[in-house]
Protein 1
Amino acid sequence: MVGGLNLMEFIKFRDLGIIVFKPIIYKDQRGFFVETCRESYLNEYKIPPLIQQNHSRSIRGVLRGLHYQLNPLQGKLVRCSNGKIFDVAVDVRISSPTFGKSFYRYLDDVSHEQIWIPPGFAHGFYVISEYADVCYQSSDYYNPKSEQGILWDDPDLGINWPLELNHEITISKKDSNNKFLKDKKKDELPQ
């Protein structure tokens, strides 16, 4: 509670370290107010400082991911500021007891939920609305030389992507050339 206002609820998925931030939305005749980030929340849940902010816009049927980088590892606080996406995180930390385990959730501009994805996870999303703006803050800087990926449709991950039968999926050439998790070499995964 801040200044008499309850601004956020949290759901922690302890086994993975993933946290869903559920903001309280205040609406009136002018529109709405929602708080998207507060340092005290980050500190309470031991989330490192978020030092880079990114924003992407994608059209319906775009699938981005599953991406991660090795050096430096990046944690991400992800939200969909406009539209609706199916957001996915996969634990790719080779020494983790939850290695290969997936987490997914719908994010949209109605609930304004956000997901904290810890460092060492691959991340991706699929756009369900006509277009979607995805905003995320990272715990470290993007390093294109260190970027890695897992094939989005890896059967071992058990991700039930909500693909639309009547709509073509759009994926980058780079993402379509990713490997299955089981085919990654040890030095291609976070330790």
Protein 2
Amino acid sequence: MPHEIRFRRLTEDDLDLMHRWLNTPHVMRWYSPGGRTRARVAEEYLPYIRGEKPTEPYLIMCWDTPIGYIQTYRINDWPDYARHIGVDDDTAGVDLFIGEPELIGRGLGPAAIRAFMRQVVFGSFGARECVIGPEVANVAAIRAYEKAGFRFWKEAMVPGEPTPEYLMRLTPDDLLEGDARTGRADAKRDLDP
């Protein structure tokens, strides 16, 4: 049976959950090296929640249960990062993780990414392209992103990052082509304004 994936804006009430997730081994390995204190989680995510920084934060919901975190932003709103990867003004970035360890490897990541692209990134956010940049060694994430339709673009060394990013791109047309291959006929409706 397919999973009902939807998204809910992150709120201040979710910070304890984010703290727990950011300190689980599978998230710490790639997203939160060394873990984060509760104070650090609040310092990082409250500006997104309050709209003080240009990142839109969401919980990934499966049915009515939060299972992970996903965020999007216009890459050019972060000039230091944008300078190192070189994208158009209407390019979004996306970052995510599945927070619950028992849900890793069940196909929820690619399903969540595709739904988020349709509903948010290419839907309400209005981006014309999306870029994601896992670490080169994060093979599981790269496979999940490929299943969602992303394709390798280039590697880029970003100052402050320990290893190069394996940059991957996706456009609305790429998403529709993938939907056509999988038989999702109603997907175009989600992308139409």
Protein 3
Amino acid sequence: MDANTPRLLLIGCGAFGRLHLAALRGLGIAPMVLDPDRAAAEATGCAVAPSLAAGLDVCDAAIIATPVPTHVPIATAVLRSGRDLFLEKPATETAAEAAALAALAEREGRIAQVGLYFRFHPKAQALRCMVAAGDFGALHYLAARFSGVKRARGDSGALLNDAVHFADLLPWIAGEAPARVFATLADSLGRGREDLAVIQMMFPSGLTALIEAGCVLPGRWPDAVVPGAETRKDVVVAGRAALVEVDFAAETFALRRGAHEPAANGAWLPRHTAREEPPIPAADPVQVVAAELAAFLEAVRTRRIPDANLRDGALAPARILDAARLSAAEGRVVSLTEIA
């Protein structure tokens, strides 16, 4: 580990905490760890912090990979201690909590980055670059599915566990924030949390986007993060000049260039090229998380606010999810101006 590398405290040694640990080891970093289950912390082979305060005393920054309801109190303690923060998604349960954390980080002058996995996947980055370069022309539709057959988490439902990924990613790819949201939520398991979420987003430009998320739908591929689960993680981007379908689980990127053109009798016919598969690198979960953490460490070193900061990476998607809850509860389209 380089002498200039910040000393890190990894808080949470569960499934995603272990993924962070593997990514850090790949970066040549041995963090101190903290977990309520001391045996789980000791099993990592890293130095174990006896308490949060003790860990923060000897570290420069913290990574929080604990259950969602614990995020706000732990993140608040980290920021108030004068330490920088990497906070796994979803950063908070509500937009109000995200706004409060963002304001605290700004007051304390701390670097804070949200763990938005798909922003650091090479195929998502390629999509965003193509949109920004105008390769699609005007966008008219985005769609994303984060669904399958897997455990229903006890600390969150489909919105916070799954939909949050694409509530962030689709506006990030489009380069535009949605204006209105309409959603339906279902609790088919009867456990008091939604296990299915369907969210429609309408953008000022006329772009429409759809997110399907849940744990009670057919999967297609083995999940790379959750053992025994089957999943679909895919995104469609459609514009006037190109169409793309990305399957993150299968690591495919299918591109067709072209558009519909007018023909005889008022018909419009598709004039698209054959399907292309650009050579965009694959990335496994450890590699993607390592890219996230490398960006965080660079932000800490340079004191440059990361793109996935608490306002853009926590508050913005949280407002969409808050709007989805309100829409589902009242059966109407909700303007984002209604969400604080």
Protein 4
Amino acid sequence: MEGPKTFLELKKYIREDLRFVNGKPIRTFFSRYFFEPGFKYTFWLRVTRYGFLSKKRILFYFCRIILKHYSYKYSFDISYRAQIGGGLSIAHIGYIIVMKNDVIGSNCDLRPGVVFGKKLTETTDGAIVGDNVSFGVGSVIVGNVNIGSNVIIGANSVVTKDVPSNCVVAGVPAQIIRKLED
């Protein structure tokens, strides 16, 4: 899940991101691009990562400038170096921080205030998030934690330890409050 290295892979990632934007089915690319700020940012994030991985320098630098512009405009700071699977959905405008060493699986739903951080003692590794994970408003993920697939993280939760698959976590620090069926 490193990211799009060919143009066909880039189209696949963008198509997966388009499939559900804010929980709504796809209509057209242009309506989502012009009326959904989260999708617009995700589009430029994907194209920037494609330019970075395919070593197309001019495309990379041009897209990085555009991505930085939208980063300031929408208060998103998602690193183009983070490995993010297809189906990324950013629900609303508001600060979101994802660092370069984080790995996020497919069909991830980010809401305002989600922050991936690291402890002062850690140097390189980031959080690893499985598929179909939904982050509530204000969720904070601290350190090198592994979050399984099919997980819901409650609003204002602070995740400091590994989270198994198929559960709902909430609280400070986050604890399992319910198991989900497979």
